[in-house]
Automatic annotation (TrEMBL):
The record marks 73 as: Lowers pKa of active site Tyr. Residues 20-256 form the NADP-dependent oxidoreductase domain. GO terms for molecular function: oxidoreductase activity, acting on the CH-OH group of donors, NAD or NADP as acceptor. The keyword Ion transport does not apply. This is Aldo/keto reductase. It comes from Bifidobacterium choloepi. Keywords: NADP, Oxidoreductase. It holds the Pfam family Aldo_ket_red. The keyword DNA damage does not apply. Belongs to the aldo/keto reductase family. InterPro entries: AKR (IPR020471), Aldo/ket_reductase_CS (IPR018170), NAD(P)_OxRdtase_dom_sf (IPR036812), NADP_OxRdtase_dom (IPR023210).
Amino acid sequence: MDYTTLANGVKMPMLGYGVYQIPPEETTRCVLDALEVGYRSIDTAQAYFNEAEVGKAIEESKVDRGDIFLTTKVWINNAGYDKARESILKSMDKLRTDYLDLCLIHQPFSDYYGTWHAMEDLYGEGRIRAIGVSNFEPDRLVDMCGFNRIKPMVNQVEINPLCQQTEAVKWMEKYGVQPEAWAPFGEGQDGLFTNPELAEIGREYGKTPAQVMLRWEIQRGIVTIPKSTHIERMAENFNVFDFKLSDGDMGRIASMNLDKSLFLDHEDPRSVETFIQLTTEQKDLF
Ligand SMILES: NC(=O)c1ccc[n+]([C@@H]2O[C@H](COP(=O)([O-])OP(=O)(O)OC[C@H]3O[C@@H](n4cnc5c(N)ncnc54)[C@H](OP(=O)(O)O)[C@@H]3O)[C@@H](O)[C@H]2O)c1
């Protein structure tokens, strides 16, 4: 496993396991499988509704809590100082842990400054080892870096061969913010798992398109957190540290960039309206 060192000196695995869209009844088994395969970083969120099942897996596994890098994210419904603080402590209870390795603001909406101040305080109290954001476009990220006591240490955004975030990553680097990729496979959209270019590159190294996509991110210095409910795929996705893509192949993948999200544009007011509607519909769930 390769590691990156965050701005505050905390070491974070370059490859982790994401549990978005894994139903609660499957989550404990999946996380136990992932830990068995060798993953030591788990990415969940309040809005995934499976924190308790992640916590159960960590408790049941033979891996020490200290060897696991555990991330959760604060959802929009819990924005603002008091609600965010209370919700993070509740997440820790669900996760059966008294500290988080990383806590992120999930979306750049509502009172995320209040949320950030709660996270800064919990960081100061030693309850969170690193704090960061997710889905922050460069302008909002620079704002967060410029007007807070503590700068975000991580920004988790969509990154895959079709949405490469080249410009956004430059801004993160300028401010010492570690980029982390969600949907490293674009959830398989646009046939990414059978893409002929990625398959051809993979054949040179005896690797699959999935492995090529993850390796490309790791070589760009981007932390990546693929999700799979299948143990063979978890193992396939984990097996990316025994080869190195050539500069030529890195360039071939760079030329696949469509430079736009496969899912949603966070700067589009209609996307914001969708989140407003969702938080209203889900107000009793948080
Ligand atoms: N911060 C955010 O807003 C945000 C948003 C989205 C995701 N995330 C995080 O990022 C993680 C990863 O993103 P994601 O889950 O959206 O998508 P993803 O990892 O890009 O893709 C997951 C999909 O790929 C399939 N898959 C995985 N490995 C495969 C392989 N080797 N061969 C073929 N198919 C494979 C999975 O199917 P099976 O499960 O059936 O194997 C699943 O359908 C999430 O789990 C979550 O932790 C964060």
